[in-house]
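Here comes my example:
=====
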Amino acid sequence: MGEPTTSRDVLKAAIDQAGVPIVIADALGRITYANQAVSRLARTPPERLRGRHFSSLVGKSDGGGQLEQIGARIATGQDWSGPVLGHRRDGSRYQLELVVSPVLNEAGAVTHSVALLRDLSREREIADVLAGELRQEAAVGAALAGLDPSEPIAVVAGEVASAVLALDGVDFSRVIALGTREQADVLADRARGPALPRQLRVPAARTRHLRTRAAEGAWVEAWVARREYGHYGRELRGAGLRAAGYAPLRHAGRPVGVLAVGTLDPRGIHILERHLTALSHFGALVSGLLGPGLAAQQRDADLRAEIERLIARRAFAPVFQPIVRLASGAPIAYEALTRFEDGSPPERRFADADAIGLGIELELATLRAVMESAATLPAEPFLSVNVSPRLVSGDAGLHEVLALASRPTVLEITEREPIEDYAAFREAVAGRDLAVGWAVGDAGAGYASL
């Protein structure tokens, strides 16, 4: 078959091949022409459409009243447009946008009508999906807004993780506390189906990645088990994780955690991208609930890491203050004090260590350094060292440290902390098999009570 040679042939070929469904009907509504696009829409060959009434394409959803209205307007030479319900021979129905125009002869009489049909089914499906997503997001937002921030942080984090599972395509969720510069922790995790491997510690490489990306805003990424993620990455990939979305949790403008969601769907990143805006909004809302607590945890974690490094590096040194006879000026004792390399006040350092549960460890480390350095002092004067009531009452290695002493030693009870039970403390002192003297430091200050 050759190419069209006349304008009429070109016009017919263009209409036949047009992507828009086009139907021509006579004055009685019988179809005289339907292009290929109509055939695809109605799932009926064009030759089977010819001769049938136009109503075979447009359903009589209102008892035929809409078709009568269309026919009346066309008969008077007017156009008609609006939504209608289409239906196929197999009984399936679909939404149409219909535009019908009359065709007039030279005398002005209506001889035919031309109808353009547009399938709205896909648009309606998209609209329904969007409406469903909006309902899900509204439900999640309402659940988050109803949480009680006075609950323990782990409880609130668990409820947050449960709430975001309502999002379509989300198979698991986590609240991750960024913690120290090298260590993030999973504060809570939830799963729609079988739980993913419960990895509470996030590797350093992954922590750095989360911290860097969280500073930029919400994001979605395909899950890749990178070598530097180690066992953490391999287990998650082995469990079927395909992609994850993240929203930063902030406090005072800086990221202190992330709200994470993940999918096992093979479409991965495309599933989560449509939730990205909502995830960002949820992150802002959750920041108000968890931000202060996460910030406090981060401060404690950073402080713990700092104190642990200080102890491991022995970033301190003892100094000895002589106690002298007034008459002769000769030293009768040396009081051991600790100075830190960074110049921070000893009272603050010991208070920080106490606050995060490393007070005894720091105290023993500094006492050990004192005993080792005191060996260089003159032999006759005794040594006075500060010890906390808790160290005396507990069993944390005081005997072992005092065994290093090369001279008579006096334990001076410090007043950084109160003695809650004096009777128990006296029993602890009496029960200690220590060849030491005892003294009270800074009597009359702090918690001193004679």
